[in-house]
Amino acid sequence: MEINDFIIVNTASVKEAMEKMDKNARKIIYVVDDQQYLKGVLSDGDIRRWILKDHSIHDSVFDAMNKNPFYLLLAEASEAHKLMKEKGINSVAIVNQEKQLRTIIFVSNETIYSEKINTPVVIMAGGKGTRLYPYTKILPKPLIPIGDTPIMERIIDKFHNFGCSNFLVSVNYKKNMIRSYFNEVERDYNITYVEEDLPLGTGGSLSLMKGMLNETFFVSNCDILVDADYTDIVSFHKKNNHAVTIVASLKNVQIPYGVLKLDDNGLLESTREKPEFSYLINTGMYLIEPNLLDLIPENKFADLPNIIFEAKEKGMKVGIYPVSEKSWLDMGQIKEMEQMIDTLGVN
Length: 347
Known about the structure:
By secondary structure, the chain is α/β, with parallel strands linked by helices. The chain is 27% helix and 30% strand.
């Protein structure tokens, strides 16, 4: 279903809202203005109470709606199911900083997005995944299952939910297994494989795609999942005229001990009990302009973060799009893989 099945403008009538509610079969309608700013929510219970008060269904939906709906900001979207459980509701609106409706998340895990994009996506799938040995002795890292679905398929599905349909995948280690699996998958998106004769790293492999990427494109490692509004990342990137936008996760680290600070004479100056520090961590997901490819050497090993830093040194704008700590899942190591499986609630 589309977002339009769940929203109605605040100038519409209660009758029109009822018709949409019957169509979406979810007993809920979110009310917005003509700029998509969230104004309220209308449930079947709200309509029932409106009618019982002897009001007309031809009255404005603005008068009948709940003007204080539950909602979360984009950075808080990972808290949606917790909020629904606490409040006993079946859906929650996700809005941007300006309170424009971006997403609706349902208790059933279905997510409806307000916009679609068709940005090309590069997935780095050529590495050996040595940190996941012995799993990767049998399977390439992109095919390691999280639940019953390989991690790379989960990544592709996430992008595809936002409208992305053109995927370029760099392959090297056990590349034929990756090809064989996705040849058997029913899909309505396109995968182009770019083969590395030698491992080229996350930056070097992009040099093989120079003739294929002529517009803004995503890059993702093949061992991460980022729960964010990808359309908002594109909007943020373009609005700020970035050459590169790095998707970064907040990471809180607590030292479980008392930390001592010494003065210049080696004597105790102060103490801090179990201090907590916050950092922005590179998730391994980027949005990139094609002119960055000019900085990448041909057929040489290069890490993408180094290429990005070189771009910054040359005066190109490099921005950061932060997501919450819970919005980023990484399976680069066995312990992290097990945590991803637990977080997603799959077996």
